[in-house]
């Protein structure tokens, strides 16, 4: 494409924006379809920018050093002025906020000097008693002067007639019941909840050897505070006072009252040799034979024969090496009346090794 002088002039005016609408439309269409013209327009724009920048450089180089300094100082002054106005606005807003915010009430803290009282009782402060009485003054049934129920330190602080710590209210008299209530409350708070531990009385029943039939029963409980709960070996607590199905062993029974106060007691469940319920022995005087006591493979065992009232009628010592016999006579050497007699064989620890019955016949 050949760019003549006329087209060159139009291109410069096109870049400068000094062109009619019709010519602008023609230039835009030409720039769109002609790559050579687009490059020419771009070169004109670059040349104009270089000329503009070089012109500014020449203009700035003509400014004296003083004018340059004034130029920068003016810029800094204008920027600083805006910053100062911003800070002033923030400060004004803060002052307004503080002025409108409600100020918290100041509370004067007075140091307390507690007095030591005997027997580790609760320390009574006259200031605290005064506050408690004034807060509960509406409970007074009638207006009376302070009684002798108050402590000496409280009487010295309050005086013997009226209480008036606030000058904006008239002095008011206090009922003696309020004073007594104050000291009763302090006394209750100082009491030890476990000063008396619960005490128990317990008993156990033996189990047959190799079985889990033993029982432990709480007979009575005193001291402490009801209701009570109970536990074996400090496992889960229960309200029931009976523990069943226990093997022969040593147990620790724990009792706990309503305040959580604990106490314990140790008890054993013994084992015994159990005969069949239908097993029994018969002894006859007419046969003239001694009764052979069942053999127990254990030394220091004792054979005991009882009447139906539980009285011991005969006692004999057994050994594991020799058989033992009973001639049918009591310990006084008298023949026993005919009838049924229970017996037991126990060891030195009073553990039942065998028990049964002997029926004496003619």
Task: Tell me what you see in this structure.
33% of the residues lie in helices and 23% in strands. The chain is an alpha+beta fold. A hairpin with a 5-residue loop joins strand 11 and strand 12.
Task: Give a brief outline of the structure.
The protein is α+β, with helices and mostly antiparallel strands and 362 residues long. The chain has seven helices and 15 strands.
Shape: rod-shaped
Q: What is the CATH architecture term of the largest domain? A: Sandwich
Instruction: Give a short account of the largest sheet.
Output: 5 strands, mixed
How many DSSP helices?
7
Keywords:
single chain, 362 residues, alpha+beta, Immunoglobulin-like, 23% strand, rod-shaped
Write the layout of secondary structure elements.
Elements (H helix, E strand, L loop, with lengths): L4 H12 L4 H13 L1 H27 L3 H36 L25 H10 L16 H7 L17 H15 L8 E7 L1 E2 L5 E9 L6 E4 L9 E5 L2 E8 L5 E8 L1 E2 L8 E4 L6 E2 L8 E6 L5 E7 L6 E2 L12 E8 L5 E10 L1
């Amino acid at each position: 494409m050949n760019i003549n002088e006329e087209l060159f002039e139009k291109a410069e005016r096109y870049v400068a924006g000094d062109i009619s609408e019709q010519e602008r439309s023609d230039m835009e269409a030409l720039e769109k379809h002609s790559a050579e013209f687009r490059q020419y327009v771009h070169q004109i724009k670059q040349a104009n920018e270089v000329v503009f920048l070089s012109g500014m450089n020449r203009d700035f180089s003509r400014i004296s050093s003083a004018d340059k300094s004034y130029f920068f100082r003016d810029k800094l002054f204008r920027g600083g002025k805006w910053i100062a106005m911003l800070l002033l606005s923030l400060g004004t807003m803060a002052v307004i906020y503080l002025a409108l915010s409600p100020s918290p009430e100041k509370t004067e803290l007075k140091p307390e000097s507690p007095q030591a009282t005997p027997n580790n009782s609760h320390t009574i402060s006259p200031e605290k008693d005064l506050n408690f009485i004034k807060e509960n003054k509406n409970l007074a049934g009638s207006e009376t002067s302070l009684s002798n129920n108050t402590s000496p330190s409280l009487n010295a602080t309050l005086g013997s007639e009226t209480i008036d710590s606030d000058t904006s209210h008239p002095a008011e008299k206090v009922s003696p019941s309020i004073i007594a209530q104050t000291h009763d409350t302090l006394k209750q708070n100082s009491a030890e909840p476990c000063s008396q531990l619960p005490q128990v009385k317990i008993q156990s029943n033996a189990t047959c050897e190799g079985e889990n039939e033993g029982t432990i029963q709480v007979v009575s409980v005193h001291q402490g505070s009801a209701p009570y709960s109970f536990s074996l070996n400090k496992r889960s607590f229960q309200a029931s006072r009976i523990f069943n199905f226990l093997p022969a062993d040593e147990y620790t029974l724990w009792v706990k009252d309503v305040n959580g106060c604990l106490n314990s007691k140790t008890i054993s469940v013994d084992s015994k040799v159990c005969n069949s319920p239908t097993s029994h022995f018969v002894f006859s005087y007419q046969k003239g034979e001694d009764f052979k006591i069942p053999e127990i493979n254990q030394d220091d065992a004792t054979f005991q024969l009882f009447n139906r009232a539980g009285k011991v009628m005969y006692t004999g010592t057994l050994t594991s090496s020799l058989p033992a016999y009973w001639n049918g006579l009591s310990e006084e050497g008298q023949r026993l009346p005919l009838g049924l007699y229970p017996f037991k064989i126990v060891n030195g620890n009073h553990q039942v090794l065998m028990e049964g019955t002997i029926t004496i016949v003619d």
